[in-house]
Each structure stands twice: as C-alpha cells, then as structure tokens.
Design brief:
CATH topology: Alpha-Beta Plaits
Order of helices and strands: EHEEHEEHH
Strand order of the largest sheet: 4-1-3-2-5
Radius of gyration: 13 Å
CATH class: Alpha Beta
CATH architecture: 2-Layer Sandwich
Largest sheet: 5 strands, mixed
Strand content: 25-35%
Number of strands: 5
Low-confidence stretches: none
Distance between the termini: 27 Å
Number of domains: 1
InterPro entries: RWDD2A-B_C
Structural class: alpha+beta
Helix content: 25-40%
Length: 119
C-alpha cells in the first residue's frame, strides 16, 4: 500500500469539539494524524492511504479553521516509509511537532512546507 501525507497550517487549534471531530475522522479514514494544538500556529499532519488522507483533509476544510493553509497537498511518501498507528495524537509545542517529523525522516519536507527553510 502506498502511503500519502499532507500538512496543514492554521491560525490556532483550540476547539475541543473540532479536535474530537478530527479524532473521529482519523479513525474513520484509518489515518495517522498529529496536531500541534493549544496556540499559534496550529499545525496538522496526516498520513495514510491516498483516499484516507484526502478525506481527512476535506474534513479539516469543512471545519473552517481560521487562516487554513494546505501547505503540503496530499502526496506520496517514499517507498521505505512505515505506517503509523491510525488515530489522532496531539503535541503542545512546535518543537515536539518538529521532533515527530524528524523521527519519521521528513524534517526537511516539513521545514520547507512551513517556510522554515529553503525548498
């Protein structure tokens, strides 16, 4: 199975009701989702099969987050990427989010998409 991923940036993620909705969507679409919640900026990463990632991103769009930016559209991961357990996970700091991207071997992709480094 080919894995896809996407990255979303928003002004902030504070609504527990919206987070609960995203948690249900991650389970429904069998995606791994990581959120940086609680403050600015809000960051969302999703990984799974192509249709699951696209459906999860559509769910986020329908929630109408302030300053929604799909900074990295759903795209294939390298063939050696391993799947994560489906579900929604949260971190409180951008550094923690960056560390999670580093552990997955995609820190350059993430930093470039976020505008932290040159593409």
């Amino acid at each position: 199975m080919a894995l896809f991923h996407a990255l979303i940036r928003t002004h902030h993620i504070t609504s527990r009701k919206k987070v609960a909705h995203l948690r249900k969507a991650a389970e429904k679409y069998a995606c791994y989702a990581l959120l940086r919640s609680g403050g600015c900026p809000g960051i969302m990463y999703c990984k799974g099969d192509e249709q699951g990632v696209r459906d999860w991103v559509s769910t986020v769009q329908r929630l109408r987050y302030k300053d929604f930016q799909l900074v990295a559209k759903p795209s294939p991961l390298s063939s050696e990427a391993s799947p994560d357990l489906p579900g929604l996970y949260e971190v409180e700091a951008v550094k923690e989010f960056g560390d999670a991207m580093e552990r997955r071997g995609i820190s350059h992709w993430w930093a470039s998409a976020m505008g932290f480094s040159a593409p």
